[in-house]
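User: Quick sanity check before I run a bigger batch. Here is a single chain. Can you write out its predicted 3D structure?
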Amino acid sequence: MTDVRPPDALQREGADDEPPRRPLRRISGDLQVRGVDMQRPNAARMFDYYLGGTANFAADRQAVDRLVAEVPEARVYARATRAFLGRLIRFLSHRGIDQFLDLGSGMPTVGNVHEIARRCRSDARVAYVDVEPEVVAHARQLLRGVDNVTVTQADIREPETVLSAPEVTELLDFTRPVAVLAVSILPYVPDADDPASLVAAYRDNCVPGSYLAVSHSTPLTMTEEQVRHSESAYQGTRTPLAVREIERIRELLPGYSLVEPGLVPLPQWRPEPDINAQQDATASANAVGALGYLP
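Assistant: Done. Predicted structure follows.
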């Protein structure tokens, strides 16, 4: 029987090994034919470049290099975010969660949600959602033939569209607990789109025993000037960045009971040996994360 007891009712297990590394394919070469603007930086491809991936273009690399020159911690943020995601999936899998809705999943890279989850639970189901057409095309190409994994092109700011998409409704059973993953995506939801209400819409479609995972950039060691540089680096993309203070991030989590240790700098959230990212100094990642349990 699936174990969906509150997290405090279970003892913490040790970390599983990460999935074996495999070579990643370069981004599909016909994207220009499909109308993808390779001259404009893209947040998903920029994140891929931070992690040393190959699914990026010169415009993405140039934007990242300019930002890193002013904010060296930007690469730390990317590594810490990826490591946080891995720890989250292992934690959730060990607590009986076998359904994941990954919002703003980004470019496929080593250590995807389904790879990590299936090392813990072979029956794990993962629905990836992203708005960028090249991200979706690349993901579908890489995931062709993989069972119980879907990729949906949709804007996460439209929960009704996401939650009614066939790739989501035919894969995930929302009468059972689901983990909604909003890892490094809410910074790209502007205040005008009311991120708190957006999160609440997904929460209200989940049953008790479900979880919400959130990570968000915040100025822990960055100066005001570095925050401006960070936000400016994404102004030329389709998804401008908003760096928020911790209390504003906390406002995104009403209705959830936060799993210990609560909303903390990413490397402080249940640290463990992690081969996906070196454990950098706690504050230098300039991001916090939390996992909320829906009672």
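The mean pLDDT is 86.

User: Great, the batch can go ahead then.
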